[in-house]
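Quick review question:
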């Protein structure tokens, strides 16, 4: 379980006032009606990970979730991926996140796209999940484990809450072969809440916990290209001229974070892994 100091520091990193109002303002600025939204309309602001909506759709395809299944999005933030998964598959998704503000804003955005019956939010610690054993058919996480200190506990909890035959799919940043990383990055302004491990360490832990690996793919080159493309777009348009984007949920130093995270990928200090595993 996360200690009180860690919980405080992680919540402080993602504490933003009036986040829903600022997202709605950004939507209006690009010509969207806040009272007639789709999950895809929210994607520029609620897909809080590299690769954006395209990366989420890749996971949706790989997960192959049925409408009668139930899924858990661990560290799901504002619920962007959960809304895409639910709208595309018809399944029910529970979003678990440590940050109360993200859960509150995510629930409000979910209501706006008419998915409150299929996407729900639960504030809680991924290292001590408030769910019964075998509650879910699928566990899903995108770029959340970087803030979670005890990966063994994380993977054990995911294994516990999955039903036999359940799947665990993730798209996550991990430590690259060159260390240390440069700061600030989108999940941490310094080392205090940065908890990257290497792909080999993660793979070993997952096997020890009991998962069976089905897909393991290093997507670092694709992530590096994504950062290049986004930095070029920001530089061409002027970052302040983009009214709806990840900066709304990242803070005033978002531009510097993007630049430094791009450098981390160029220098192979951070990697990205896509994986699909199952619980025997």
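Suggested answer, residue by residue:
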């Amino acid at each position: 379980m996360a200690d009180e100091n860690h919980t405080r520091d992680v919540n402080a990193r993602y504490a933003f006032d009036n986040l829903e109002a600022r997202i709605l303002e950004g939507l209006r600025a690009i010509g969207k009606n806040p009272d007639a939204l789709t999950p895809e309309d929210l994607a520029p602001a609620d897909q809080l990970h590299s690769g954006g909506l395209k990366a989420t759709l890749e996971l949706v395809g790989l997960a192959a979730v049925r409408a009668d299944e139930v899924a858990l999005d661990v560290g799901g933030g504002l619920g962007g991926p959960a809304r895409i998964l639910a709208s595309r598959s018809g399944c029910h998704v529970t979003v678990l996140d440590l940050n109360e503000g993200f859960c509150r804003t995510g629930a409000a955005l979910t209501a706006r796209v008419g998915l409150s019956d299929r996407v729900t939010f639960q504030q809680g610690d991924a290292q001590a999940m408030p769910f019964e054993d075998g509650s879910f058919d699928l566990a899903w996480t995108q770029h959340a484990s970087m803030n979670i200190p005890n990966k063994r506990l994380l993977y054990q909890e995911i294994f516990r809450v999955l039903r036999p035959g359940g799947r665990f799919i993730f798209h996550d940043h991990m430590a690259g072969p060159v260390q240390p990383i440069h700061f600030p990055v989108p999940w941490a302004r310094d080392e205090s809440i940065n908890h990257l491990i290497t792909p080999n360490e993660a793979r070993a832990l997952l096997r020890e916990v009991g998962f069976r690996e089905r897909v393991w793919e290093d997507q670092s080159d694709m992530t590096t290209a994504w950062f290049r493309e986004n930095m070029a777009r920001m530089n061409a348009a002027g970052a302040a001229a983009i009214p709806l984007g990840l900066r709304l949920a990242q803070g005033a130093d978002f531009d510097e974070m993007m630049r430094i995270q791009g450098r981390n990928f160029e220098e192979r200090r951070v990697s990205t892994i896509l994986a699909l595993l199952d619980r025997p």
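Why it works: The chain has a mean pLDDT of 91. The first helix runs from residue 4 to 13.
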